[in-house]
Automatic annotation (TrEMBL):
Subunit field text: Homotetramer, a dimer of dimers. One homotetramer interacts with 1 SecA dimer.
Segments traversing the membrane: none
Function: One of the proteins required for the normal export of preproteins out of the cell cytoplasm. It is a molecular chaperone that binds to a subset of precursor proteins, maintaining them in a translocation-competent state. It also specifically binds to its receptor SecA.
Lineage: Bacteria, Pseudomonadati, Pseudomonadota, Gammaproteobacteria, Pseudomonadales
Record's keyword annotation contains Cytoplasm: yes
Main location: cytoplasm
Cited Pfam families: SecB
Locations listed in the record: Cytoplasm
Name the UniProt record assigns to this protein: Protein-export protein SecB
UniProt organism field: Marinobacter suaedae
Protein's UniProt keywords contain Cytoplasm: yes
Family, similarity comment: Belongs to the SecB family.
This protein's UniProt keywords: Chaperone, Cytoplasm, Protein transport, Translocation, Transport
Amino acid sequence: MAENQQAAAGSQNENQPQFALQRIYVKDLSFESPNSPLVFQEQWKPQVNLDLNTSHNKLSDNQYEVVLSLTVTAKIGEKTAYLVEIQQAGVFLVSGIEGPQLGQMLGAYCPNILFPYAREAIDGIVGKGSFPALMLAPVNFDAIYAQALKRKQEEGGEEAGKQESQTH
């Protein structure tokens, strides 16, 4: 009888949604300061632009790679002070979640986990370029995902949520 209960509990656990972060890594990182050292003589009141994209790839039945791509451009007038590009990635185990919930997980929840790592890497590389610290504001990935989903539905896209894009 105890064996039957254990077997039943085991089959219930297999059907339960599971999510686990397996690895976080920098896939690509680039820093450019094309107008150094002359830009250091300018008054530091930059216009900072953030572009971000997310994408995901299925690695196996339950494993997905999610990539958060950020491009930060700081300009003083027409001069580019610096340009940082990063692809912060993670491998996630996701099982028992399908359809729109899976899309939401890969398109909003996972990028939300990756963002603080990307933000820290950007701040570090900007500091090494001898520029003042840059602490990016939090991003609402749920809203970005919802906008991308709506845009895909309006365009008649069948793979809504596969890739999102937003400019700040």
